[in-house]
Design brief:
Two copies of one chain form a homodimer. Chain A is α/β, with parallel strands linked by helices. Chain A contains 13 helices and twelve strands. In chain A, strands 2-1-3-4-5-11 form a six-stranded parallel beta sheet, with helices on both faces. In chain A, strands 7-6-8-9-10-12 form a six-stranded mixed beta sheet, sandwiched between helices. At the A-B interface, α4, α5, β2, α6 and α10 of A face α4, α5, β2, α6 and α10 of B. The structure holds a DNA duplex. Chains A, B: Pfam families: LacI (PF00356), Peripla_BP_1 (PF00532).
Chain lengths: 351, 351
Amino acid sequence: MVKRATIGDVAADAGVSTATVSRVLNGGAVTEATATRVWEAVARLEYTPNALTRGVFAGRSSTIGVVIRDLSSPFYLDLIRGIDEVAAANDSLVMLANTFRRVDREVAQVRTMDEQRVRGLIVTTGEATDGRTRRMAENGTPCVIIARSVLDAPPGMHSISLDNVEAGRLMAVHLAGCGRSSIGVVSSGRRTSQIERTAGLRRALADLGLPLPEDAVMVAETEDEVSGAVDALLIRGRDRGEPLDAIVCTTGRLTVAVHAALTARGIAIPGDIAFVTMDDFPWATALGITVIAQPSYQMGLKAGELVVDRPSGPVELVFTPTLVARTSCGERQGLIPYPGSSALPESPLVP
Amino acid sequence: MVKRATIGDVAADAGVSTATVSRVLNGGAVTEATATRVWEAVARLEYTPNALTRGVFAGRSSTIGVVIRDLSSPFYLDLIRGIDEVAAANDSLVMLANTFRRVDREVAQVRTMDEQRVRGLIVTTGEATDGRTRRMAENGTPCVIIARSVLDAPPGMHSISLDNVEAGRLMAVHLAGCGRSSIGVVSSGRRTSQIERTAGLRRALADLGLPLPEDAVMVAETEDEVSGAVDALLIRGRDRGEPLDAIVCTTGRLTVAVHAALTARGIAIPGDIAFVTMDDFPWATALGITVIAQPSYQMGLKAGELVVDRPSGPVELVFTPTLVARTSCGERQGLIPYPGSSALPESPLVP
DNA sequence: GCTTACTTTGTAACTAGTTACTGAAACTAG
DNA sequence: CTAGTTTCAGTAACTAGTTACAAAGTAAGC
C-alpha cells in the first residue's frame, strides 16, 4: 500500500516550505520559477490535496448534502440532476442519502450530514429533523426544504415548493373540460402537499358545480393499499348510481400502482375512466397518460443555487405546475412527448 | 451565526480534558461518573463531532463514492439503493456524482472523490480514469467497477458485472422459441457490455440456424439516433424480402426510444414485430415488455460490501441475468409483474 | 550608498480531532 | 504496611492542511 504524498512531501521535493506550496495551489503571491518547481513536484509525486483537511480549516466541507425520501421517483431523479449540475459547476459533490420513507433513517442521515459539515443541506423530507435543521441553519449551513408547503417550513430554512393548489385546479378544469363529472381521488396521505392538491381540486370542482365529497378521496400510504382504494372508489360510484368516470392520483409515486389497478380490472383508459396523475415521466408518452408536471430539474437547480449563493434571509420559492395533456382523459389534442425523448418522425416504413 | 461546539468546549464544560471526551465518545476506559458528565455536556452544548477532522486522522472519510454515467436509468437507481443500504448499515453515506456521459466530468468527479478521501469508490464508467483508480487502489481505497467486462477491468480494482453473453443467449433462445427469425439489433455502441451481448445473441442464434449479419446490428449512441437505426433495420428487412419480425435492444437506456420509434410507425408489438430489451423497469408490466433483468440491487449490495469489507485481492463477481417473459414477443405465458409492485387481484368491480 | 517600499518566502500557530505516553490514584497481594 | 498492578485521566504530539506575522531579498528614490 503506497502512502499518499502530503503537502510536506511536495514542499520537500520542490525545496520550499509547505506555506509556499499552499500559496501555489490556492493562488497566492509566488514567483513564476517557484510555482513551476512546485507544480513539477505535484505532478512527480501525483499529489492530490486532502479535501477533508481543507474542510477542517474552512469549517465546512465542499459537498452538498441531499436527503431524499424515495429515490425511485422520477421527480427526485430530475431534482438530483439539477442539484448535481450546480455542484459540478462549483467543484462540489452531492452527498446523497435515501431514507426509504423511514423516519429513523432520516434522523440518522441528517445527523451524519451535519457531522460531515456539508456546505448546505437539501431535504425533501424534514418530518423528524426540524430541530437539527434549525440548528444547522443557525450554524451557518444553508438548508433547503423541498416539496413541503411554505407554510410549515421550519424557521431559518429556504423553501422550494410547488403551487399544489394550482396543480389541483388544473386537474379539475381539465377533467371538467373532458366532460367528466364523477371523480375519485387516490391520495398518499397527510403530507401538506397532498392535502393542498386535494383542496385545490375540490375548490375548483366546486366552482364548476361538481362537488367532491370527503369519501371520494381515498388514502393509500403504500402501493399495496392502492388496489383497495381503487375498489372503494368504484364501489362508491356504483352504489350511488354515478359510476366513476375519472380517477385523480395526487402523487407520482403511486402512478404505476393506480394504473395497474385500473388495467387489472379491465377498465379502459379513457374509455371507461379518465386518469390524471402528478409528475411527468418518460413512459407517460407511450402510455398516453395526462399529467401535472413539476419543473423538477429547475427546482434542483434553484436548490443548489441557494446552497452555493447563501442569500441572507430565508428564501421562499413557489414553482408553477403545468398540465401535459395526452390521451388518458379522452382529450383530442395532439400528443405531447416527454421532454428529452427524441422527436418521433412519421415513417412510411411500416412493414 | 452560532459557532459550533468543539470537543474542547465539551471538555471545558465537563471539567475534563479533550482526551477524555474523545475516549467517552469512542469507547475508551472511563469512569461511569466521568462518562455521565461528558454526555451531559455533549447534550447541553448540542455537540456534533466533526467527521472531517476524524477523517483527517483516520486517513480517509467515512463516505462511499459512487460515480454514475447516467442517473436516469432504473438499473443505476436500484444499484444506488443497494449501495446506500450497505452505507446506512455502516454509518456511512453515499457521495454521488453523475457524469451525464461526459468524459471531462468523469475525470473531474473521480478526482474530487479522491480528494475527499472516500473510503471506497464505485464506478460504473471508468473510461478515462484508469490511471487515477489504479493509484487510488494502490493507496488503499477499494475501487469497484460495475457493468464493465471482467476482461478490461483496470488492475487492482474489484469488478462486478453481468454475464452479458448469457443475456444475449437468453434473448436468442426466447425469440426463436416465439417463432421469430428476422431479427434486428439496436445497440448503444462500443462498450464491452454491448459487444458481449450482441456476440452472445449472435452465437446462440447461429446455433439455432439463424445467422445475425453485421448489418442487422445498428448502433445508436443517443436517443436521437434510435429512430434512424430502426428505420435502417426496417429498410434492410424489406429490401431482402425478409421483413423484420423482432427487434432486440441491448441497453435499457434506449428502451423508451426504441419503443417510441416502433409505435410512432404504427408497428404493433408483438403483432408486427417482437421486442426484447435489457433491464426490468416499473412500467414494463403495464406495457407487457419482455426484458432481460439484471439483479441490480444485489449488485449494489455486493459493491457496497466490497468497499466496507476490503478483501485483500481483487474480487471478480459475475451476476447471471434472467429473462422476464411478458407479452412483447408474442409469448403466451402468464404475466410477470415488476418486483415490488403490489399484487393485482382480480376484481368483479369493472364499471 | 542608504533608506524606504514592496515582493517573496519561511516560521510557527492555528483548525478539530485522536492517541501514545506518563503519572497519579486505587486496588490487590504478600 | 509496603510493593506491584491496574485503572483512569492529563499532557503533548500527531493528522494535513491554512494563514498571520516576521524576516529576507530586491528595486526604486534621493
